[in-house]
Amino acid sequence: MAPKALDKFKARVRDLTSRTRGISLPQLIKELKQYLIGWRGYFGFCQTPRVLTNLEAWIRRRLRMYLWRQWGNGHNRFKELRRCGVPKFRAAIAAGSPTGFWRMSGHPAVQQAQRNHYFKSLGLPRLHLSAQAWSNRRGNPYARWCGRGGAVRRPPTPINPHQHAAKE
After folding, report:
1. Model pLDDT, residue 72
2. Distance CA 104, CA 102 (A)
3. DSSP states of 80-120 as a string?
4. Among 111, 115, 117, which residue's Cα sits nearest to residue 90?
5. Cβ neighbours of 98 (radius 10 Å)
6. What angle do CA 101, 105, 111 make, to 5 degrees?
7. CA–CA dist 24, 30 (Å, integer)
8. What are phi and psi of 8, to 5 degrees?
């Protein structure tokens, strides 16, 4: 995948996940979802799926950073981490940390509070879908791209000559 395309993608995601937007996370994911699905439709069949999985991880970290910024001060952060099931000691260490937003988004306590399935439940789409996942959803993943994506038809039923001869 071209570095320029990746840079443009990351710049757009940075704009959408800017820390000062002031919208709820579900609303942010709703806006981000449109862009990600369109981008996946164009770049989803790249030869390097590792690039896509790394981008997925990067996006989730951006969203954790967005939440960490929204939670504001140490008291609210502690309360939110505890509400998400983080043990008291780990929540206190994370909430009291003076570390910056990006670095804290990779902190184990924050990652434990906001697991990948949490973002999936909010509707965050995956960038990399295996060929089997595509075939389960839409048939052949390359059919539409190659121009063979018409309606799925059953093969014609062969005529059995012995079947007609028995009726006569």
Report:
1. 87
2. 5
3. HHHHTT--HHHHHHHHT----HHHHHTSHHHHHHS-HHHHH
4. 111
5. 6
6. 155
7. 10
8. -65, -40
Are the C-beta atoms of 99 and 136 separated by less than 8 Å? no
Could you read off the pLDDT of 84-95 as tens digits, one per residue? 999 999 999 999
The reported pTM is 0.74
Whether the Cβ atoms of residue 136 and residue 128 lie closer than 8 Å to each other: no
Question: Token pair 């609303």 is at which residue?
Answer: 27
pLDDT in tens, 48-83: 788 888 999 999 999 999 999 999 888 999 999 999
Question: Is the CA virtual torsion 114, 118, 122, 125 positive or negative?
Answer: positive
- For residue 109, the tally of other CB atoms under 10 A from its CB is 21
